[in-house]
Amino acid sequence: MELDLETAKLNFETQGNKNNPPLVLWHGAGCTLRMWDFVVKELKKEFYTIAFDVRGAGKSINLETDQEYYSFEQYSQDLNDILDFLSVEKVHVWSMAWGTRAAIAYSSMFPNKVISAVFSDASIGIADIDAQKFGLKDALKKQEKAGIEKFKMPEAWNIHLNQESASLSLQAAGKFDLTKAIKKISFPYLVMTGDHDPNLPSSKDIVKNSISGELKILECVGHGSVLQRPDLTLESFLEWHKLIKSRDAKR
Question: What are the b/e assignments for 82-93, b being 16+ CB within 10 Å?
Fold first, then answer.
């Protein structure tokens, strides 16, 4: 589906019954909404999934050249425009890596619109790209040794209409103070990061200093967890949602 705005054309996709709880899926750096394809097959049984390409990435087109339109503030407003179009008021969120930075920013600006969140591969510090690659390599070796078959990537998970604008879209992370943002979040959230992901220390700090966050460490998993282990991340996501439903029922 496509939403035409004055400054952009936003590509998004919904799956599942609209009467189900709405779940926004926020893609990682260099990715598109297609990165969620393997987990959406199961998610749509319980949720009304809303996956979207941030402006300039995937099939979303940024019609503006001004750098201010590549920002978490703008992406958050874009998401709200999509939610308004769909007549959705509040959502659950699942994000990965760079997308988690964007989702944390959104959550801090619009906490009244978020019911809960799962922040995969979370970090509010400076990304160490080399360490991410080394950690992933080690994790894949251990998975192979354990007899875990390597998953294929979803088709078109990193295909963009405009590679230049896709690269520019990532610059938004450096323009937003995530240290202040994470302190504003009080709804239930799970930080889910692999033990071979260099983002793990930051993930632990996020939860340690939060009032509502919990930590799930994924064994033998590196950076890019949803793409690397869609089975394990999906299982962990659903288990946590079952847990918070149970907690709510007891109140």
Answer: bbeebebeebbb
